[in-house]
Amino acid sequence: MATAKMSVADVEEFLRREFPQAFVHDDVRIESADGETALLRQRFSERMLRPGGTVSGPTLMGLADFAMYVVLLSAIGPVGLAVTTNLNINFLRKGQPGQDVLAVARLLKLGKRLAVGEVNLLSGSSPDPIAHVTATYSIPNQ
């Protein structure tokens, strides 16, 4: 795969300008993105929890989708209209309340029109994923 076309600072600047709703609670931080992988952290908040005290599915899906978007932008540059065409998630274990959620994204294949990747979601400092995601993005003609 190619080297990064956007740094973390570039991706963040682009997203804050073009997709500001992603930062409405300012609880997601892009820790790294290098054109092949990305690491995002969502700080814990009560908004993340579903009844029973576990991290909700929509929280995990949203973070995973955003992590894929970040790693893709870092690889292809500022292409705002790249969109998710498929996202599959397997919930593996309960995310612990009170812990940040980490998204470790990796591009598996980057073509001219499609990108395929995976995201492992981790709770706190545990090395065991709480969910595994595969996603496909469509890349418009540039």
From TrEMBL:
GO terms for cellular component: cytosol. Residues 52-124 form the Thioesterase domain. It comes from the Bacteria. The chain crosses the membrane at residues 66-89. CDD domains: PaaI_thioesterase (cd03443). One of its GO terms (molecular function) is 1,4-dihydroxy-2-naphthoyl-CoA thioesterase activity. InterPro entries: HotDog_dom_sf (IPR029069), PAAI_dom (IPR003736), Thioestr_dom (IPR006683). Keywords: Hydrolase, Membrane, Transmembrane, Transmembrane helix. Pfam families: 4HBT. This is Hotdog fold thioesterase. It comes from Bradyrhizobium pachyrhizi.
